[in-house]
Amino acid sequence: MTESFETLAIHAGQEADPATGAVVPPIYQVSTYKQDGVGGLRGGYEYSRSANPTRTALEENLAALEGGRRGLAFASGLAAEDCLLRTALVPGDHVVIPDDAYGGTFRLFAKVAERWGVEWSVADTSDPAAVGAALRDRTKLVWVETPSNPLLGITDIAAVARIAHGAGARLVVDNTFASPYLQQPLALGADVVVHSTTKYMGGHSDVVGGALVVGDPELGEELAFHQNSMGAVAGPFDAWLVLRGVKTLAVRMDRHCANASRVAQLLEAHSQVTEVFYPGLAGHPGHEVAAKQMRAFGGMVSFRVAGGEDAAVAVCDRARLFTLGESLGGVESLIEHPGRMTHASAAGSALEVPDDLVRLSVGIESQEDLLADLTQALG
Ligand SMILES: *Cc1c(COP(=O)(O)O)cnc(C)c1O
Fold this sequence. Notes:
Elements: H1 5-11, H2 53-65, E1 70-74, H3 77-88, E2 94-98, H4 103-112, E3 119-123, H5 128-134, E4 139-145, H6 157-166, E5 170-174, H7 179-182, E6 192-196, E7 210-214, H8 217-230, H9 236-246, H10 249-268, E8 273-277, H11 287-293, E9 300-305, H12 308-318, E10 323-324, E11 334-336, E12 357-361, H13 367-378
Parallel strand pairs: 2-3, 2-4, 4-5, 5-6, 10-11
Antiparallel strand pairs: 1-7, 6-7, 8-9, 9-12, 11-12
Helix pairs in contact: 1-2, 2-9, 3-8, 10-13, 12-13
């Protein structure tokens, strides 16, 4: 069978249903399974927290798309992150996190994991030397987001993998912004890929989900043990929605990238915009690394508005086709003010974002309509 991404997205883990021939994995909306005599499991399934056929289809699909050996699907991206923390860390261990991490990831370390004795510090992961300087004796994980949220910073995955491994730490890459269609961290040396499948993988703003994918089957087993022990699994319908979304990931992503690139050009030339963050722009500090490790530059664009916070909020309020809302990665375009919305929990910390920043999730609507809306919103 062809191993190209587009083919795997549609077929990996999704053979026709053996019972009926259904070409799409059915939604196995079931909690328990009849046993043929005590312990006689028909398909290996006994209880749907431990495993469910629809979730298995998604988990196998995700592993194939990331080029990993084991995929695990969770109730949300943060549930996936939490499972990883509690599998990989014990009190006293240390984690390096990026200085522009997703707000919820930052909150998980600062407000939850810290109470359980996990130590963390932030580093500018776009500078491999800064990651090296942040390592401690008990650093077990180096956590990276590339492109990062909301400033679209780029981290050289292969370079940071070498530094982490040199210190006996594992490299975790949050691949939510890129998706495996644009970037495959495991092939670049990462140990764990994290996803909020809520975003590009689901792609239609109709499901909340998360995933982990690993190359090491032993680590995969440990994670599966914790996934079952803690229980924040993806339900069958949610797993099915993500599987359905993934089938069109490649074609959606091509359009997201094309539209975002035009949006970034428009913003760069606009007099009301003081700075544009998009790795596809030649002037972006991570452009060369992004060009090396990504197929294209993604659908997220952030920018700063002349006139400060009030002006940035006004742009968000005036947008019409760009819907004012949190989240990202759906077919519809979204606009938001990170300082007051997605990243409000990072206020006053090293991860605070500029108050004149606006973030766009550029959807797959008509390019002309999107550009016209932004032009009118900028005034
Ligand atoms: C949304 C997001 C998460 C958290 O995922 P949820 O599905 O909302 O729990 C983690 N990382 C990034 C980069 C995100 O955008």
